[in-house]
Specification:
Blueprint (H helix, E strand, L loop, with lengths): L1 H11 L4 H14 L7 H6 L1 H4 L2 H11 L6 H9 L3 H23 L4 H12 L4 H5 L4 H27 L7 H12 L3 H20 L5 H19 L1 H14 L8 H14 L6 H16 L3 H25 L1 H11 L9 H4 L6 H25 L5 H16 L16 H18 L5 H23 L4
Helix pairs in contact: 2-7, 2-8, 5-14, 6-10, 7-10, 8-22, 8-23, 10-11, 10-12, 12-13, 15-20, 16-17, 16-20, 16-22, 17-20, 20-21, 21-22
Length: about 450
């Protein structure tokens, strides 16, 4: 009995035990979800045409995702439990790669913080928007494999040896990841930045240079794909005719509007921004940096309040009881996310511009004296740009919640960086309090996802 107890204790104290726990939580989702939406459509693809014909038709008429789409069709057309096993492993791989890349000390506790932040992400509401199978494969899988493709850069930075058999794995992960347009932009940005960085440090890597060239070529492949152009035209006609008349500023305005009103009710943004405010107050005694550190959290609260004003049926009922009028006489979600832009849309753009500036200022204030300053800037920059670029897609509203995945994971990474750097500077009592609060927010995030399924 004592031997069994010691083995259990050893497992629980293993640095990656929190990720096993995360896998169990994700597994619970799969007992309640079933194929739906695009899963049904994709599931019948190979009954009608062979793989190569499907890829050719997709390339010319719909999308450059000629790697991702056949994979989605394969899993949608086979046993849901086969997909579930693989999907749970991909979720676990996501957590492992974030840990491997961004956690290098106090692994056990920091990995718990990572998992608490990950389960704050509203995976269920995002990944069920177009079908659980298809949405996970089109969004979560490319992002996860992109992190695998970025991992060798971390190894080169810290001087770890990369074995010869690892290179094909990184290459294949990059091929799958870069087939998704937004992930392709992230990968090419990261690799080009580190090409310059390694060149400056006289630490050139043939692999990094070669991958950067392939990723740049892939961008041209995406831009020149006739299917992407055809799909954009059809999406404009079907979902957003006014989009065809928009210029650069109008598309930025649409991006800002989508961030405020198609974002999920979630805990990850609030949790990470609250951590930033807490660590700013911990690090500084002067009021100015403290205020800069807490502004993003206040703005996140304001975004949540704005969503409640527009979207909450309970608030709408209360408004009608008090005023005798319907709030929909003043503002509606369909009025906000459809039709031509007006004063309120441009006011939202100004508001989001202030939010972006506050995020950048907060990051600089927090990390300016830290070795991870550059990585923190990249993480917050990726979070911002992942939403900015959505304004340049006519499906910015139609795609909805799933497009926030990239911002949320960037926020998870930013939260891990903060926890890693600043948590050790607090007293043990404050550390324990923060750890429990993160755990509490994680429980809320998990329940928020689970209750949408049962």
């Amino acid at each position: 009995m004592e031997i069994f107890r010691l083995k259990i204790k050893k497992i629980v104290n293993w640095d990656f035990f929190p990720i096993l726990f995360f896998g169990l939580l994700v597994m619970s989702f799969h007992f309640f979800v079933r194929p739906s939406g695009d899963d049904i459509t994709y599931g019948t693809v190979f009954y009608h045409q062979p793989v190569l014909a499907f890829i050719r038709d997709a390339y010319y008429t719909w999308s450059s995702r000629i790697v991702i789409m056949p994979v989605a069709a394969f899993f949608a057309g086979n046993s849901f439990w086969l997909f579930s096993v693989v999907n749970i492993l991909v979720y676990g791989l996501l957590a492992v790669m974030i840990s491997r890349i961004f956690v290098d000390k106090n692994r056990l506790k920091t990995n718990w913080a990572l998992i608490f932040l990950l389960i704050c992400v509203p995976f269920v509401s995002m990944m069920t928007t177009a079908g659980w199978v298809v949405t996970n494969i089109h969004y979560l899988w490319p992002l996860t494999f992109a992190l695998v493709a970025i991992y060798p850069i971390k190894k080169i930075c810290v001087g770890e040896i990369i074995n010869w058999y690892e290179y094909p794995l990184y290459f294949l992960a990059a091929i799958f990841g870069m087939n998704m347009e937004l992930v392709a932009a992230i990968l090419v940005s990261v690799y080009l930045i580190f090409c310059l960085y390694f060149g400056y440090r006289k630490k050139n890597s043939i692999f990094v240079i070669l991958m950067a060239a392939i990723l740049v070529g892939n961008l041209f492949f995406i831009l020149l794909c006739p299917g992407n152009g055809a799909r954009e035209v059809s999406e404009i006609v079907a979902n957003f005719p006014e989009y065809a008349t928009f210029g650069f500023v109008q598309k930025l305005t649409v991006s800002a509007t989508s961030h405020m009103f198609t974002i999920d009710q979630n805990f990850i943004m609030l949790t990470v921004m609250a951590m930033a405010g807490l660590f700013s107050w911990q690090k500084y005694k002067a009021w100015l940096p403290r205020i800069i550190g807490i502004i993003p959290f206040v703005i996140c609260l304001m975004i949540n309040w704005a969503r409640i004003l527009v979207l909450s049926p309970k608030f709408g009922f209360l408004f009608s009881v008090i005023t005798g009028k319907s709030i929909h006489d003043w503002v509606t979600l369909s009025g906000i996310i459809g039709g031509q832009l007006n004063f309120y849309h441009y006011l939202g753009l100004v508001f989001m511009f202030i939010f972006v500036l506050s995020l950048i200022a907060m990051t600089v204030i927090l990390f300016k004296d830290e070795k991870t300053f550059g990585v923190a800037i990249l993480a917050i920059g990726a979070s911002i740009m992942s939403r900015v670029v959505m304004g340049f897609s006519p499906t910015v509203y139609a795609s909805g919640a799933r497009t926030f995945l990239f911002q949320y994971i960037a926020m998870v990474i930013f939260g891990v960086l903060m926890y890693r750097e600043f948590n050790p500077l607090m007293t043990s009592n404050k550390q324990n309090m923060l750890f429990k609060l993160l755990g509490f927010m994680g429980v809320l995030g998990y329940l928020e996802s689970l209750l949408k399924l049962i």
